[in-house]
């Protein structure tokens, strides 16, 4: 780790008026600093800022510094969001990691984290060795010739499914951006991962009220049961009335360069009977546009099966 200056602002105004890299839980930043992937000269410890609070009275609102474990356990948090948090990392890390920091975590691509290797995200123009290298964990959707790294966050997938927004603040004021628009596919500029501007800070996460969000879940398929990133995941919610699907929300992780909202699958589910056959028919289009690599050609099929499994979790035993 390189030498750096550490300060701890106590007000949001002081933090936004200082140049540096923000530190919350540190579960990503500190790791990358140890690897020399990130080498900030000035680190701002923002844990003393008043960016806390959870409100479930009308939709959901989370202060950006709320810890993942606390949000997951809070009454009224939609099941898909809670489950996505509980399936993230270990309990110790969930106790440390903040919601805002989780949404900004960097890819776990091994080439990005190895400073002896090229990586277009880390050094623009240096190349993407994952395209022809070890790529089993990499993306098949939203990729480009410059980058095929998957997005690492579990809870971002569930939040995208529910049309979440992030409040972003800087010294000039505050703006709100839909989380689905916040993340950027790599294209020719994979080093630009999101819409966060220099000096901006996520201050709050908001999820609109959805009266049927209680019928939601998050399924994560991975190589081992705990402390592992997703090969594929699905956040789903269903509004089922008299055996018919009135509305649906579906988003996927582990298969794309950003949290991947599957609006076409949602449309294919609406108006159909809540049956395994209908689920499979809708999920069949989930992998459209996929670009499998040499070692992850299984992912489009795994995505379809994961969506069906998640939808069945919501309907089996519930009089579907």
Automatic annotation (TrEMBL):
The keyword Oxidoreductase applies. InterPro entries: CO_DH_flav_C, CO_DH_flav_C_dom_sf, Diverse_Substr_Oxidored, FAD-bd_PCMH, FAD-bd_PCMH-like_sf, FAD-bd_PCMH_sub1, FAD-bd_PCMH_sub2, Mopterin_DH_FAD-bd. Keywords: Oxidoreductase. One of its GO terms (molecular function) is FAD binding. It holds the Pfam family FAD_binding_5. It comes from the Bacteria. PROSITE patterns: FAD_PCMH. Coiled coil: none annotated. Residues 1-212 form the FAD-binding PCMH-type domain. This is Xanthine dehydrogenase family protein subunit M. It comes from Amycolatopsis panacis.
């Amino acid at each position: 780790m390189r030498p750096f200056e550490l300060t701890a602002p106590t007000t949001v105004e002081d933090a936004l008026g200082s140049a540096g890299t923000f530190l919350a839980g540190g579960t990503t930043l500190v790791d990358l600093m140890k690897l020399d992937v990130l080498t900030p000269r000035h680190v701002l410890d923002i844990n003393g800022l008043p960016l806390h609070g959870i409100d479930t009275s009308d939709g959901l609102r989370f202060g950006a510094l709320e810890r993942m474990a606390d949000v997951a356990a809070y009454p009224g948090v939609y099941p898909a969001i809670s489950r996505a948090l509980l399936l993230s990392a270990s309990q110790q890390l969930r106790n440390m990691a903040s919601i805002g920091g989780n949404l900004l975590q960097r890819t776990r691509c091994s080439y990005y984290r190895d400073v002896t290797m090229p990586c277009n995200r880390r050094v623009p123009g240096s190349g993407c060795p994952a395209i022809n290298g070890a790529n089993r964990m990499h993306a098949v959707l939203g990729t480009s010739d410059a980058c095929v790294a998957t997005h690492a966050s579990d809870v971002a997938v569930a939040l995208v499914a529910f049309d979440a927004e992030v409040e972003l603040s800087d010294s000039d004021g505050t703006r709100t951006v839909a989380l689905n628009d916040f993340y950027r596919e790599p294209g020719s500029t994979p080093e630009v991962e999101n819409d966060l501007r220099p000096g901006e800070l996520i201050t709050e996460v908001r999820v609109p009220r959805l009266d049927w969000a209680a019928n939601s879940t998050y399924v994560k398929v991975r190589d081992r049961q705990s402390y592992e990133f997703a090969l594929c995941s699905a956040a789903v919610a269903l509004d089922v009335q008299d055996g018919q699907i009135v509305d649906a929300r579906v988003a996927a992780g582990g298969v794309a360069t950003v949290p991947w909202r599957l609006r076409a699958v949602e449309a294919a589910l609406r108006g159909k009977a809540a049956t395994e056959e209908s689920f499979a028919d809708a999920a069949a289009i989930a992998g459209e546009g996929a670009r499998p690599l040499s070692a992850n050609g299984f992912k489009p099929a795994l995505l379809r099966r994961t969506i069906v499994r998640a939808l069945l979790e919501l309907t089996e035993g519930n009089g579907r």
